[in-house]
Amino acid sequence: MNLWKSTIGGMALAALVTAVPTQVLAHDHFERIHEHMEKWEEKLDLRKEQKDELKALRDAMKAERKTLKEQNRALYKQVKEAIKSGADQGTLDNLGAQLGKVQVAKMQLMDKHFKGFEKVLDEEQKAKFEAMKAEKKKRWEEKHQDMDDDD
Description:
Elements: H1 2-26, H2 29-43, H3 48-84, H4 89-120, H5 123-150
């Protein structure tokens, strides 16, 4: 009886472990960031030249984003297959390290994009943008403070 429960429990855990990351991968964070940037462009009342410069920046980074996304998906698939096939820990660690490098590259690209965004702004827009970021950070901290209180 215990073996049966352990087997079912293990299968349920495996299904959960593979389903949740798949949902995360389905959502492209770069696209969400671009949606935010478009909203910021409106709120900051950017001039046409600034909007054109930002569009050129987005277009220039599009191929790099796509490459990183494809690498991420391919490595994730390899990790998933390695786990299913019972690969040794060394293989999993190696794949995990490769996946980590791709994640770092994605973060670096996003940082580069944010710096490019801020570089386009004039002093008044930069001040307004900093105020917007501070307000967003405050709301985030308040939201997460409530979660910490629940513990």
